[in-house]
């Protein structure tokens, strides 16, 4: 029962990780730059993401521009696109596979099949967490290095946005869920190896009858 509850808790963490991963991939809040200028009425907030750049004006206007050209983008944005999409796909596969392998469900067949499915789902979550953690770390490093560069003007410097923090938290949820799923299956298999099932040997009825017949002959 405790293992099933732990798997259910890991499944909830994985769901939050999947939703956060998708939100971080689509949101344009990877880089944020606030330019107030001389008048607060003309203040604007520039946001850059993996797929679009948006500008929000203090008057309430909001405009976005899609990034159509892939080759013109920096290498870290291209890598972030690829790895975040892979993270979303792997986490979605992990949800489907883990649902089959969980102990609280009636899917997956026998115990061995459910353990294998549970372990496979955990591996998908771990890989999704790694693919989600790498681009967020790389993107944050580029933002910090550009911010500390003295040759770059102040108007071109940005700070990490909400999508970066969402990516970090989602990757952590996916990694924790994957470790829980894999460890729960491993403990069950290890217990089966240490304590093998006892085999009871019962004498056959034929031997008993033969033994009784021989005693009568000797009498």
From TrEMBL:
Gene3D superfamilies: 1.20.140.150. It is found in: Cell junction, Tight junction; Cell membrane. This is Claudin. InterPro entries: Claudin (IPR006187), Claudin_CS (IPR017974), PMP22/EMP/MP20/Claudin (IPR004031). The keyword Signal applies. Keywords: Cell junction, Cell membrane, Membrane, Signal, Tight junction, Transmembrane, Transmembrane helix. The chain crosses the membrane at residues 84-105, 117-141, 161-182. Belongs to the claudin family. PANTHER family: CLAUDIN (PTHR12002). The keyword Signal applies. GO terms for cellular component: bicellular tight junction; plasma membrane. It comes from Nicator chloris. Claudins function as major constituents of the tight junction complexes that regulate the permeability of epithelia. It is a multi-pass membrane protein. GO terms for molecular function: structural molecule activity. Residues 1-24 form the signal peptide.
């Amino acid at each position: 029962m405790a293992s099933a509850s732990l798997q259910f808790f890991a499944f909830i963490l994985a769901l939050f990780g999947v939703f956060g991963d998708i939100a971080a991939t689509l949101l344009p809040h990877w880089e944020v730059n606030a330019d107030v200028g001389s008048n607060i009425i003309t203040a604007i907030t520039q946001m850059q993401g993996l797929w679009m750049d948006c500008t929000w004006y203090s008057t309430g206007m909001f405009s976005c521009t899609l990034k159509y050209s892939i080759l013109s983008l920096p290498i870290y944005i291209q890598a972030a696109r690829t790895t975040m999409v892979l993270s979303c796909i792997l986490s979605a596969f992990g949800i489907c596979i883990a649902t089959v392998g969980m102990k609280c469900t009636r899917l997956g067949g026998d115990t061995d099949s459910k353990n294998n499915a549970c372990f496979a789902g955990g591996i998908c979550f771990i890989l999704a967490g790694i693919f989600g953690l790498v681009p967020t770390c790389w993107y944050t490093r580029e933002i910090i290095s550009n911010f500390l560069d003295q040759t770059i003007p102040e108007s071109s410097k940005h700070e990490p946005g909400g999508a970066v923090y969402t990516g970090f938290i989602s990757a952590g949820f996916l990694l924790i869920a994957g470790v829980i799923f894999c460890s729960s299956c491993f403990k069950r298999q290890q217990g089966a190896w240490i304590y093998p099932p006892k085999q009871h040997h019962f004498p056959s009825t034929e031997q008993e009858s033969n033994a009784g017949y021989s005693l009568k002959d000797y009498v």
